[in-house]
Amino acid sequence: MTRTPAPAPHRTVVASDLDRTLVYSAAALALAMPDEHAPRLLCVEVHEARPLSYLTETAARLLVELADTARFVPATTRTRKQYRRIRLPGRVPRYAICANGGHLLVDGRTDHDWHDEMRRRLADGCAPLAEVRAHLAATSDPEWLRKERIAEDLFAYLVVDRERLPAGWVKELAAWAEPLGWTVSLQGRKIYAVPKPLRKSAALAEVVRRTGAERVLAAGDSLLDADLLDAADIGWTPGHGELADTGWTAPHVTALPTVGVAAGEEIVRRMLERLAR
Question: Which of 46, 113, 129, 192 is a good FRET partner for 179, with 20 to 30 A between their CA atoms?
């Protein structure tokens, strides 16, 4: 029987979340091994003159190989300004998804046609940002709230003290936001309130349309990555994060047991192995 050949690597899009999927802050590294066995790390982000995010040197080498054999597309909830602080090894990606799909960068520049399209979808499909922001202000408590931010005038997030955050507050917020067309996600110290039409998978579909890609590989760790993984042909999740904590799964997605920065390395390795088949 004749087997259908796999799509050529350059016809494959590899879309991956960044924070706690490929890159890790010092607090998220999860270096549980003895110090003498810890992996060598490469700093890929500096903020306010201080090193902020890392990946292993092995992951860096593998990522260079990955970007040379497939179309690598970072897909992040970060704003454009936050994304531009990331200096990944290898060639600069032609496409990058920022603000959870609200912005599509092409050769580092904002694609305004795509952003206008997303604005139209938000206007048609969910309550305005001002209403959500007012609710966050009215229900949050200075005892555990550290910062309140608006990202790209598209969505809101809170930086909180997790130890003081009341049990059930995030669940109550999610129940309030659901009928308004918004979703809530807890990632580390951040609570995101994001309109449902603002999805990484929407921007990914636009990249696939423009490139004519025949296959999509994806990775992510949070509930905001679930739609990205659903849209992929094959995906991976690390052993930490919201998806792991909630037991989220899909038939085509492999839940890795590895946690921390080692999971980022394992994800890139698995992607390369899949491309080589």
Answer: 113
Model confidence over 55-112: pLDDT tens digits?
A: 999 999 999 999 999 999 999 999 999 999 999 999 899 999 999 999 999 999 999 9
- Cross-strand partners of 36: none
Instruction: Read off the pLDDT band of 1 (50, 70, 90).
Output: very low
Taking the complete model, does pTM exceed 0.90, yes or no?
yes
Alpha-carbon distances of 60 from 2, 114, 135, 271, rounded to whole Å: 37, 30, 42, 13
Per-residue model confidence (pLDDT) at position 4: 42
Question: CB–CB of 265/58 below 8 Å?
Answer: yes
Per-residue confidence band for 271, with pLDDT thresholds at 50, 70 and 90: very high
d(CA 54, CA 68): 21
DSSP string, the chain: -PPPPPPPGGGEEEEE--BTTTBEEGGG----S-GGGPPPEEEEEEETTEEEEEEEHHHHHHHHHHHHHSEEEEB-SS-HHHHTTB--SSSPPSEEEEGGGTEEEETTEE-HHHHHHHHHHHHHHS--HHHHHHHHHHH--TTTEEEEEEETTTEEEEEE-TTTSPTTHHHHHHHHHGGGTEEEEEETTEEEEEETT--HHHHHHHHHHHHT-SEEEEE--SGGGHHHHHTSSEEEE-SSSHHHHHT---TTEEE----THHHHHHHHHHHHHHHH-
Give the per-residue pLDDT at 2. 41
